[in-house]
Amino acid sequence: MSLSAHKAGLAAALALCVFGAGYLVGRSRGAEPSVDASGGALQPSAASSESAASTDVVASAASASVAATAAPSAVSSAAAEPSSSLASPSLADLKRLEQNVRSIDDALRLAQGHRLRAEEDARALIADLRANPSLREDASTLAYAYKLALDPDVSPLILAGLAEFPSPTIADFLDDLARRGDPGARLVLLARDLRDLPQLVAVHSPPLRLALELERVRSCGQALALLPRVQKTGDSRSMASMVRFGRITGCGPKGRDDCFPCLREKVQRSLLEEATLTCQSQWFKAPWIVR
Predict the structure, then answer these.
(1) pTM of the predicted model, to two decimals?
(2) Rounded to whole angstroms, how far apart are CA atoms 212 and 157?
(3) Average pLDDT, the chain
(4) So where are the chain's domains?
């Protein structure tokens, strides 16, 4: 073996020692997570940078050893080549970059980092709700859950987790999300599907149960039969149905016929008006909406 090859072998052995020490140091730190450029999970940036740098040393030394055995002159040129592997930047490092120096890749890494952090927050919240049932009625906790639910990347995780805890409040929470968004949006569809699960339907509050029954009304007789209940337990969530019952068009071949003609008689019309006033006066207040 040539002298240069012997030196390269010693360098490789030294690099292995350095790599082991760096891994232990990185594992012992609570480092800021870093964002994998390929979109992978967050990893501790300290450990990643030390591991990546140490791995470069090992790879360079090993390749230099092989090259020295075949062609000693290649050792010096291999050692002069800079490492192409760079440690993934941490989320904190990316946030510190000024807007005018960020690249598209930086912006995507930031978005990926925020998504992964939000998913971690959602899992932690569900674990807290599982451990402490009283939090399921806490306004500030529900407000935080509502904020997470508005993130399309996190909403399936947080809403499915909430559905594990059937209660009138959770059912109202899901219904509120279903009513506030675009009817065709994925968030709305998911919230509606979860709200209508049998275990959630069983705990619907009387006003929510009534509002959903009114939405399914397809005949004048059905509407008339429900109006007395609206006067007793209706709230603002039934208001859209009252407006629908009050329209005198919308049916027939051209949509010009009255869908609920039995509600136009004096007594029935008075009943509809009283039910409408009840819905207007009993406004549903969502505790998770901070005003």
Answers:
(1) 0.68
(2) 25
(3) 78
(4) 3-93, 97-201, 206-281
